[in-house]
Amino acid sequence: MALEPELVARFAGLVGPGNAVTDPDRLAPHLVEWRGLYRGRTSLMLQPETAAEVSAIMALAGRTRTAIVPQGGNTGLVGGQIPDGSGGQIILSLSRMDAIRNVDAAGGIITVEAGATLQAVQDTADAADRLFPLSLASQASAQIGGVLSTNAGGTTALAFGVARDLCLGLEVVLASGEILHGLRSLKKDNRGYDLRNLFIGAEGTLGIITAASLKLFPKPRGTATAFAGLASPARALELLTLAQSRLGASLTSFELSAALPFQFALRHMPALRDPFARSYPWYVLLEASSPVGAAQAQSALAAVLEDALAAELIGDAVPAASDAQARAFWAIREGMSEAQKHEGGSIKHDISLPLAAIPQFMDEAALAVQSVVPGARIACFGHLGDGNLHYNVSQPVGADKASFLARWADMNDAVHAVVSRHGGSFSAEHGIGVLKRDILARSLDPVALATMRSLKNLLDPLGILNPGKVL
Amino acid sequence: MALEPELVARFAGLVGPGNAVTDPDRLAPHLVEWRGLYRGRTSLMLQPETAAEVSAIMALAGRTRTAIVPQGGNTGLVGGQIPDGSGGQIILSLSRMDAIRNVDAAGGIITVEAGATLQAVQDTADAADRLFPLSLASQASAQIGGVLSTNAGGTTALAFGVARDLCLGLEVVLASGEILHGLRSLKKDNRGYDLRNLFIGAEGTLGIITAASLKLFPKPRGTATAFAGLASPARALELLTLAQSRLGASLTSFELSAALPFQFALRHMPALRDPFARSYPWYVLLEASSPVGAAQAQSALAAVLEDALAAELIGDAVPAASDAQARAFWAIREGMSEAQKHEGGSIKHDISLPLAAIPQFMDEAALAVQSVVPGARIACFGHLGDGNLHYNVSQPVGADKASFLARWADMNDAVHAVVSRHGGSFSAEHGIGVLKRDILARSLDPVALATMRSLKNLLDPLGILNPGKVL
Q1: A/B interface, count of CB pairs below 8 Å
Q2: B104: chain A residues, CB-CB within 8 Å
């Protein structure tokens, strides 16, 4: 199943000198997912510089029935970007296609190639006095092609939506090698069927995104950040309703955390300080933005929190007194995932739920977790405003990591059963990849699944686009 | 080609008594588009009450190769909802499927059947202290199924997006009769490929939307409305940039009009008054919303307009002094289309452009119009914030209406050529229907067109779903 040297040479001839990587040391970091959970093999990674080169690669892949695995910044969490173990799949890295093709500040549109990092897009927007709102902990490495292919969410989806909502058009190389020229720079465009959204979230299984037109927004002139301590998810939902009714679209983040991941972050990141004098069972990190300035955002947020205190929705609230303190608050939130590593094995769930179902879900899921591994510690945090929870389960204190992680599938099944009972999703923002392929096949509406399979067969009849992922 | 009586009886047996309309008088209003531009024939309209009935209808349609034309409120502008002249197509009216299935105010989601009117959805949201923002002049009749099937836009797309952006999930009956259960009530959900957006904007050619989950928003506590008079579209774009940077997402409408449609509205709607003491070449209607109250919106909008006056972006601005005056301002804007009827024949263009291209487009398109019909009067208005213009052309004063309208295709060609030169779209928010099917086939990226055709063939292999529309 490994790639024949002659085939490697033919593919290598399609890209510029130095852009066909065969050196095992250079290949190695692209063969393993960053947490080490997914590993693959290959003897070739191609780094094309143009959509025309990607087109030539797909045409040859079709003629030779060679599987192509597109890879962006390799920050994905479900294994979608890693080749299988056969050695017969080629990695297609988009990293050299990183140009910012155009910035139209007045029109609110940026056109970028797939290999541009999310950070580069944010920075380019910022330099043009505009905001590209999508924000992920991995944004320094995550590339736009991967962000779109996984339909990433992040902390600003509450006000600005997920990747899908931020994309106006795509350039895509199809399995046939044909190039779909869909880089539309229009806010409204009803010319026929929507093709863009087929490729967004398809994890490279229906086509290779090579460039995208994305929405830009006026840059807020100031933000206000505050942490609140409170008793329960039900109270957090009431606070969300209050904050949204009072702040509207200027409520730009609303992040929930249980006490445990909050404490993990403080314990393992010694530079961070607890903003509160006492501890609370739950915490919410709120951010409000203003087109006028920080003072307006601060007074609006403070008024909400005062009323929330008076209504006993929260026990305490600490507004960030400076930009530095706001960054420190965000560091607690963004450090939760990393800090969890120091607490032993962690079994992850990336779920979403109807908002109203969340309190009940929390109660039932806690029982489900204990029934699988008594003493397991639930480290739940996430984007409450989107109904999106990272429902992570840390091993019991002192337990054996390997035997805890051996219960991964059982734990997933138990938690996802509760999710399903409440009309939720087992894949909110991280995608399907290989991790959730089986559960998708098992649990999705059969008509939807059959339609997805027929779309895959239509757009990739030879099965050369990232095979073994999603479906 | 007319429907056999035996076939009519078989289809009629699939719906409840009285729900199979064969009376020519009752059929008549469903056979003609409201402006009289599109006319068709049929001897049967079915009015199913459940998705299961729609499923049975499609299953029988498949077995008998009978074409089904879904129809909502019959307010469409491109002929998509009207059967052809053969008499062999059945109208499938969704009007009896008008239930509001669920309102989740706290979660910000409303689930409605396809036949619910846009007005009913707005009113239901309002009664739950929420906003469903999509707003069209035809909303009292327009049904959600049609709104989604045409991916309608309207006056609030600037802040809230088009129909596509407001939809979380769909229930769809496929050509096979299978029911796709996709009524997801989740803000984030990455379970496989996005099927929802295939059906949105497909004008009933890929499946029949029977229900939808839609986003609700916190209701603004106050709005401010103002008219500004100004010199040119270039100035209007500068005003837009200023207003967006200062108001952010609270700028909820930004409607441009040339002097002519503004004057038409005042001339033919005698209850309306000109807000200005003198006339201007162009006008902008602005609306700002506030989650706090009208006073906040008014002061924020007034500050923008003061600065715009000082910077000489505008010649004058008139804030609405009351809700009644705000409604009167909107009546001028919403009356433009109707008022144009009194000025003789009108050739319409529903176009969108990159914002920066609009001033140049205006100059070039004016020349193009004059080259086709000297003396034709350009009545251009639209949603400038979305780059979406209704570039309508009224006949020369005193000209013969029929001979002017005979130039429809030539006029379209001339204007669309300028649109195309500037990277714009000939179909911004009204859809393709039969009106723009030829131009779509002629001018779309061939790879995109071929992909759309293969999707149509995949999802409707027998060609029974609204044949002759879109593709």
Answers
A1: 261
A2: 354-356
8 A C-beta contact, residue B439 and residue B416: yes
pLDDT along chain A (471 residues), means of 10: 94 96 97 91 98 98 98 96 97 98 94 98 97 94 98 93 96 98 92 97 98 96 97 98 94 97 96 96 97 95 98 98 96 93 95 96 98 98 95 97 96 97 95 95 96 98 98 96
Residue in chain A lying closest to B109 (CA): A354
Residue in the block written with tokens 């929930």: A256
Sorted by sequence, the CB contacts under 8 Å of residue A299 that are 6+ apart come out as none
Determine which of B134, B191, B442, B453 to mutate to test the interface with A (most A C-beta atoms within 10 Å).
B191
The closest of B95, B150, B99, B105 to B129, measured between CA atoms, is B105
Q: Quick check: B435 and B78 in contact, CB under 8 A?
A: yes
Q: For residue B254, give the nearest of B389, B119, B124 by alpha carbon.
A: B389
Enter the ipTM. 0.95
A190 and B448 within 8 Å at the Cβ level: the answer is no
**Are the C-beta atoms of residues B412 and A145 closer than 8 Å to each other?**
no
Residue type, A411: M
Closest residue to B190, CB basis, from A431, A458, A471: A431
A190 CB-contact burial (10 Å; exposed 0-12 / middle 13-18 / buried 19+)? buried
Residue A316 dihedral angles phi and psi, to the nearest 5°: -165, 160
* Structure token pair of residue B240: 């837009």
Give the closest-approach CA distance of B18 to chain A in angstroms: 31
Triad A113, A117, A118: Cα angle to 5°: 105
Q: pTM of the predicted model, to two decimals?
A: 0.96
* Rounded Cα–Cα distance for residues B49 and B390 (Å): 36
Identity of the residue numbered B381: F
- Residue A429 and residue A152: Cα distance in Å, rounded? 5
Dihedral, CA of residue A460, residue A463, residue A466 and residue A469, to nearest 10: 100
Pick from B205, B180, B208, B204: which is nearest to B194 by CA?
Answer: B180
Nearest-angstrom CA–CA distance, A295 and B357 = 36
Q: Which of residues 7-36 of A touch B (CB under 8 A)?
A: none
Length of chain B: 471
